[in-house]
Automatic annotation (TrEMBL):
Tetrahydrofolate dehydrogenase/cyclohydrolase NAD(P)-binding domain: residues covered: 140-277
Name by which UniProt lists this protein: Bifunctional protein FolD
Lineage, uppermost ranks: Bacteria, Bacillati, Actinomycetota, Actinomycetes, Mycobacteriales
Organism: Rhodococcoides kyotonense
Gene Ontology biological process: L-histidine biosynthetic process; methionine biosynthetic process; purine nucleotide biosynthetic process; tetrahydrofolate interconversion
Subunit record text: Homodimer.
Keywords: Amino-acid biosynthesis, Histidine biosynthesis, Hydrolase, Methionine biosynthesis, Multifunctional enzyme, NADP, One-carbon metabolism, Oxidoreductase, Purine biosynthesis
This enzyme's EC code(s): 1.5.1.5, 3.5.4.9
């Protein structure tokens, strides 16, 4: 029996309805809308598309968007100065540095220049530690979206065997921490993993985040497993061989329409939460 789809479009829509209502309430109580600042360095076409989508969606739900575009020649020091200014600006509630940044920039230093209270993309060390220790804070947007998808479909993670393929600091590692916090038994796989297919075959939950089209083969999937494809490759192809995997899985995310919509929904939800928390502090 083919797998049932985990519908990120519908869940994102319902999430954004709540975000919009909270943004209206915030504006009514403070006299201004929540504000998300997006910083983009360079001319990467995909990054420009992603930022434009986030800006447009922000405005639709009642969040002000301040967009800062910097040239490819921007130095690490210049970028840090921009991020420090945004971090100290009381009119800015949330900061998103679109990644990846150009190769000559120290991306980790740039992330750490963001005030953790405004780190709605969950990229700072503080946010990672909060995810690892199960403390209140902002999750990385895509991992947070994945966890909300699993929760919405009542996927039981406690005691489940979860395999994450990919160990990036903004996806693989943080989603591993969130799965651990949900009491799953987590295996992080990567380019040096031997017998990857066997690791996947034992998994009750598979999170694919490698950035290689159809790298995870359908016949690797354990019958009835939950498959989350966080990859997006040219031609609307994910990291999982979808048609073959869907014949074996119990639940599976489509590409597009699965994880992607939830990434933006979590980002904007966390923007409103950041605005509310900072307003309380002020």
């Amino acid at each position: 029996m083919p797998a049932r789809l985990l519908d990120g479009v519908s869940l994102a829509a319902s999430t954004l309805e709540t975000v919009s209502a909270e943004a209206v309430d915030f504006a009514a109580s403070t006299g201004r809308k929540p504000c998300l600042a997006t910083v983009l360095v360079g001319d990467d076409p995909s990054s420009h598309v992603y930022v434009r989508m986030k800006v447009n969606r922000s405005r639709k739900v009642g969040i002000d968007s301040r967009r800062i575009d910097l040239p490819e020649s921007t130095t690490t020091g210049e970028l840090l100065s921009v991020l420090h200014d945004l971090s100290s600006d009381p009119a800015v509630d949330a900061i998103l540095l679109q990644h990846p940044v150009p190769a000559h920039i120290d991306e980790r230093a740039a992330f750490e220049a963001i005030d953790p209270r405004k780190d709605v993309d969950g990229v700072t060390r503080t946010s990672f530690a909060q995810m690892a220790f199960g403390e209140p804070g902002f999750s990385s947007a895509t991992p947070g979206g994945i966890m909300r998808l699993l929760d919405a479909d009542n996927v039981q993670l406690a005691g489940a065997s979860a395999v994450v393929i990919g160990r990036s600091p903004i996806l693989g590692k943080p989603v591993g921490m969130l799965l651990l916090a949900a009491d799953a038994t987590v295996t992080l796989c990567h380019s040096k993993t031997t017998d990857l297919a066997d690791e996947v075959r034992r998994a009750d939950v598979v999170i694919a985040a490698v950035g290689r089209p159809e790298f995870i083969r359908g016949d690797w999937i354990k019958p009835g497993a939950v498959v989350i494809d966080a990859g997006y490759n040219e031609g609307n192809i994910g990291d999982v061989e979808f048609s073959a995997a869907a014949e074996r899985a119990g639940l599976i995310t489509p590409v597009p329409g699965g994880v992607g919509p939830m990434t933006i929904a979590v980002l904007l939800d966390q923007t409103v939460q950041a605005a509310k928390a900072l307003a309380d502090v002020r």
